[in-house]
Amino acid sequence: MKDTFEERLTRAMNLRASGEYEAVLTLMIELAGERPESAFVQYQAAAIHDRLGLEKAAVPYYEKSLALGLSDPEDEANAYLGLGSTYRTLGDYENARRVLMCGRGKFPSHRSFDVFLAMTLHNVGEHTEAMRLLLLLIADTSGDAEVVAYKRAIAFYAENIDRIWPGDDDSD
Questions:
Q1: Are 137 and 115 in contact (CB under 8 A)?
Q2: Entry's Pfam families (predicted)?
Q3: Which of 58, 63, 74, 148 fits as disulfide partner to 49, beta carbons 3.0 to 4.6 Å?
């Protein structure tokens, strides 16, 4: 007797928890084909492809999961982050920026979007904005006492990273 869909999905989740990713991949491809209308299953298929370094194959699963609408906000945020990051690693910086900005707008408390967006901005030569995002992230989230002591200065310089102040010398 063949296992039910739910039993196979549970097995896939258990295999993933135990690190048996290749077996999960096989199961998730099968399950995603059987339930193309399940955003959760499409997302899980994307995530396992991504985990195994199969970024190009992960994209359609991520896209479909987001188009279908994930019910769990954490899954949705992770799908946006996964798709944006995947586009970036594939060199598709325009789509990476679009997806990461969308995810960042929907989930502003997920500061990991700032990190991946900064990497994307770096890739397209927008170094000042990339640095600004990272400096603000550091200022806002660091618990390191030395960084906290300079939080205001770091936040100020994040907005003025390219500014040069005149010196106090007596020349000319």
A1: yes
A2: TPR_5
A3: 58
Q: Which of 88, 71, 24 is nearest to 52 (CA)?
A: 24
Quote the domain boundaries for residue 49: 5-106
Question: Is residue 61 situated within a structural domain?
Answer: yes
Does residue 82 fall inside a structural domain? yes
CA distance 112 to 104: 9
Q: Are 87 and 117 in contact (CB under 8 A)?
A: no
Domain containing 61 — which CATH number? 1.25.40.10
What span, in angstroms and rounded, lies between the C-alpha atoms of 44 and 75?
A: 9
- First vs last C-alpha separation in the chain: 92
